[in-house]
């Protein structure tokens, strides 16, 4: 794997080759990664894996025609060949009036903010094994747990570098550490599985494997003996670990490509209140040690903290340069990309804030409802907002969580769901996307 400085030098050579081959403009992206993972099951080592890879993607423009080529061979000769092939392909590509690099006057310039996403700690395979065993042992020690799907631990590093013919040069090195456990509770016809995991940029921020394992075991046991539920309209609470899925549906609906195509249920909602007053949804790429923190986006534009939803009002689309040109707007610094194609748009560290009620108060007035802790399937229509997903969780009766429920379907429409959303005050920053407990009244729950 190349260092950030060496990666930028390699990209400079690729861009020079593209210009010599006849490209009017070009950009190049390097991604190198390496990770070690250890998995155990029933107290025994099951697998030790080490993966490494690196690739350069070259995107060239000949007029408004563009093409992308990627190569895992980073030798000078291979990059020259890839650049020449990309230019040949671009000359045959259809004309696209919206294609092009990001505006040169909008490019970020260094020095870039230190987001503290590179941890010098490098745990050995033996240390990873010990962590995976500790997580599984803690899960199996929970009374009622009868089997294990295993424990795991991992550590990895990624180097990313981006350079453009318009003068942008930026690179970063980031690390990650993770621990997980998955176990089975019960026996015979009543067995339930659940899991827990945590990941962090720095090993020091990673939760104890004992805590992760115990959480997995307790979750599995709590799901034993689920009941069937009669169908009807009722309040639904989304547990924080799946509440973030609602943020994902919103983010997908406000990407520039969806708006430009007219295929989003939110295409006419800019500047309107789509969530209740007091609710804010924040995209914060500059969060220290964030799992998706970055000082520049996939096109070299500076990133910034953005209130996508402010006081319930939709304030912005997520725009890369191409979709911004199509809509007659400016790119927003949300471009994301891989090595094999043009950029799209997406979020970084996303979270919902503004909730004031504890989870207990959120459910205090519910005579019958459901706390959903797991979602199954992807029954969401991005054009209409219609929402229908399989689910399991717990019955809420007279303001209290009582019995587990399984094999239910929850349904509604995302526009209505967002408008009725009530947020709890239990927001915790554990993942790249974070939300507190969320309540949505009037959802249809289909059971037996």
From TrEMBL:
Listed Gene3D superfamilies: PmbA/TldD superfamily
Naturally occurring in which organism (per UniProt): Sandarakinorhabdus cyanobacteriorum
Chain positions covered by the region annotation Disordered: 329-352
GO biological process annotation, one example: proteolysis
Family label: Belongs to the peptidase U62 family.
SUPFAM superfamilies: Putative modulator of DNA gyrase, PmbA/TldD
InterPro entries attached to this UniProt entry: Metalloprtase-TldD/E_C (IPR045569), Metalloprtase-TldD/E_cen_dom (IPR045570), Metalloprtase-TldD/E_N (IPR002510), PmbA (IPR047657), TldD/PmbA_N (IPR035068), TldD/PmbA_sf (IPR036059)
Top-rank taxon, per record: Bacteria
GO-annotated cellular components: cytosol
Pfam families the UniProt entry points to: PmbA_TldD_1st, PmbA_TldD_2nd, PmbA_TldD_3rd
Domain Metalloprotease TldD/E N-terminal as annotated: residue spans: 26-90
Protein's name in the database: Modulator protein
All copies of domain Metalloprotease TldD/E central, residue ranges: 119-224
Domain Metalloprotease TldD/E C-terminal residue range list: 231-447
A GO term, aspect molecular function: metallopeptidase activity
């Amino acid at each position: 794997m190349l260092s950030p400085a060496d990666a930028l030098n390699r990209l400079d050579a690729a861009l020079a080759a593209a210009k010599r081959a006849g490209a009017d403009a070009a950009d190049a992206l390097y991604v190198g990664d390496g990770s070690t993972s250890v998995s155990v099951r029933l107290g025994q080592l099951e697998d030790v894996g080490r993966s490494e890879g690196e690739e350069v993607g070259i995107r060239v423009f000949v007029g408004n025609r563009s093409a992308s080529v990627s190569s895992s061979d980073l030798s000078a000769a291979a990059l020259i060949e890839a650049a020449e092939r990309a230019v040949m392909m671009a000359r045959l590509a259809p004309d696209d009036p919206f294609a092009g690099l990001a505006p040169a006057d909008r490019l970020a310039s260094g020095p870039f903010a230190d987001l503290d996403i590179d941890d010098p700690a490098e745990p050995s395979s033996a240390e990873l094994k010990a962590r995976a065993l500790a997580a599984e042992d803690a899960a199996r020690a929970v009374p009622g747990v009868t089997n294990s799907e295993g424990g795991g631990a991992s550590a990895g590093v990624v180097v990313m570098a981006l350079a453009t013919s318009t003068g942008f040069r930026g690179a970063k090195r980031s690390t990650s550490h993770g621990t997980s456990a998955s176990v089975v509770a019960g026996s015979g016809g009543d067995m339930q599985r659940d899991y827990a995991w945590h990941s962090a940029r720095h090993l020091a921020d990673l939760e104890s494997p004992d805590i992760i394992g115990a959480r997995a075991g307790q979750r599995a046991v709590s799901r034993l003996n689920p009941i069937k539920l009669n169908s009807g309209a009722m309040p639904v609470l989304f547990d924080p670990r799946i509440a973030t899925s609602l943020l994902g549906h919103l983010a997908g609906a406000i990407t520039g490509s969806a708006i430009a195509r007219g295929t989003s249920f939110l295409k006419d909602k800019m500047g309107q209140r789509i969530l209740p007053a007091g609710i804010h949804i924040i995209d914060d790429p500059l969060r220290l040690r964030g799992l998706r923190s970055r000082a520049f986006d996939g096109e070299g534009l500076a990133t910034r903290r953005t209130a996508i939803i402010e006081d319930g009002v939709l304030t912005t689309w997520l725009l890369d340069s191409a979709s911004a040109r199509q809509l007659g707007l400016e790119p927003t610094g949300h471009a994301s990309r891989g090595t094999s194609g043009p950029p799209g748009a997406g979020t970084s560290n996303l979270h919902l804030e503004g909730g004031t009620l504890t989870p207990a108060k959120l459910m205090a007035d519910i005579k019958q409802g459901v706390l959903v802790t797991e979602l199954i399937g992807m029954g969401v229509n991005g054009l209409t907002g219609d929402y229908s997903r399989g689910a399991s969780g717990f019955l809420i009766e007279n303001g209290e969580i009582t019995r587990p429920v399984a094999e239910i379907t929850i349904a509604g429409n995302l526009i209505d769901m967002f408008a009725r959303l009530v947020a709890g005050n239990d927001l915790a920053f554990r993942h790249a996307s974070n939300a507190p407990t969320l309540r949505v009244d009037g959802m249809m729950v289909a059971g037996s």
